[in-house]
Fold:
Amino acid sequence: MLVIAAIYLFLPIAATVLYSFATTWNTTVLPEGLTLNWYAQLFQDMRFIESFSRSLLLSGGATLLALLVTVPAIFTIMVYAPRLERAIQSLVMASYALPGVIMAVGLIRAYAGKGISMLLIIIGAYVVAMLPFIYQAVSNSLRTINAAVLMEAAQLLGASRLRAFVRIIVPNIMPGILVAGLLSFSMLFGEFVLINMLVGGKFETLQIYLYGVISKSGHMSSAIVVTYFVCMAIISTLLLKLGTTGSTAAIGSVRSTRSAKSTESKRRALR
Structure:
């Protein structure tokens, strides 16, 4: 069963990779020849370079903005207003049930002709769309480290709330933040419906470029997909490596903070 599942998952990917290197592949089981010509044409096309850069900037910018806004907000709710957590969580998860087409139609009716750049509208929509993923990852990380106790320990040792959040809480939940960021970035990088309906060819991203190439050349579209996979694999590896390094440093920080709190408690008891 596991073998069948593996074949079902990896066979389309393997076929796409082979097709991106094939000279022709019509009547034989395997490609009749291999070439790098499709990749050479792809990387010489300025439209591909520009659309890839736009997708990278748009997805990365929206993900970074979403993390900067939502991580402190989730921390504040869970530590200082835990009674509101269930209601906020239900509200955040509701955005997950909203289909992209419905969201796009609503945004067009609400903001079209109001003088607001549609790119800003898209970034705002992306931030809202990523809330469920960021909320789950960050809230689970905060529960794991018992953020309220850590904040109490840090403040007992003289740290301000801001310093304790930046120096103690953030490093300890960094793996969760990175996972949320990676998941959000991957989904936004492949997003097609919103960007196509709101701006279309005026701001050509990689997905819009790919949609136009599919009808012209299967080899070129396969090369684009393989390039996308490789790019995502490199980014994922770098972020996971960064998360592993950060979590190791954070464990040391937690142990130091808890040890200091324990020492302070013993001193108070002796007095």
User: Anything to note?
Assistant: The longest helix spans residues 218-270. The two ends are 66 Å apart (CA to CA). The CA atoms of residues 96 and 111 lie 21 Å apart.
